[in-house]
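@channel sequence for tomorrow's demo:
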Amino acid sequence: MVFLIVDVQWNLYLELPPGSTEKNYSWQDIDTTKYRFPSDIWIIRPTWEIIVKVMTILPVFVVGVLANSSLIRVILGNKLLRTTTNLFIANMAIADLGTCMLCPWMFLCVDFFQNYMLGSVGCRLDGLLLQALTLVAVFSLSAVSYDRVTSIVLQWSGKLTCRTVKILLVFTWIAGLVLAAPLALFRRYEERQWMDHLEMFCTEDTKILYSYWHVFVCFSVWVPLAIMAVCYSAILIKLGRYESQALKSKHPIVVRYKGRVARVLALVVLSFIMFRVPFTAMVLRRAQLLQKPAKLGQAESMYLL
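structure tokens (generated this afternoon):
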């Protein structure tokens, strides 16, 4: 018996009987018009499911947009608040605002429809935007960590200047877009005609992007985590001594504010570790599965994850 199998990236393979010496063929070698679609055809998810998912994501969207836009307005609208740390935080808020406004709805559009409805442009921009914005936010958070170290641990030695900060802000966006560019270059929109269904999907070059995902994870997770872990470990060790010395020359409110900022940012890093690392493990697992022969049900299981 011959089976048609779809992998985790919606590529099709022809699985031959056990013991066959012939190789599996990719979907480009198969005339799919001779076969019925190898899965249930549902077109769009039930109305109740769409409503539940929209209502679930809506509070995240509203709070994310209002909070980040308010933060950006306060920092950029008040000259006294345009410190080096706050400029990096504003840059991170801009990236998070873009993520809140674009990514949830693109994800829901992919989830609601059985076919990929965003077309060729959406296929290339989907991954590019999400990962570029992620990298900008992560790079900004790493820069904040270094800036706090220079202020608390190094006692202003090597503190970033306004000119250096502006250069780094531009660099975070250029670096984010460059590192995420392979997701636009090596992803493509495909259509596949079956006997009873026109399938539309977004796929990627797994041979090239398999290596890319390891590079991306390195720059988006492991390097920033290493930087932030070292910085905030040094900060928390030196924080008590810094506060006692700073009280001799600075107002207690200012000292308390800086200590509170350091502790809150340390909690942000801890949250980043708790929630990003499991997702990173799933990304690497997905990349591994793309390198192996497809199995029945594999696409569905990975999609649920």
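heads up for whoever presents: The longest helix spans residues 206-246.
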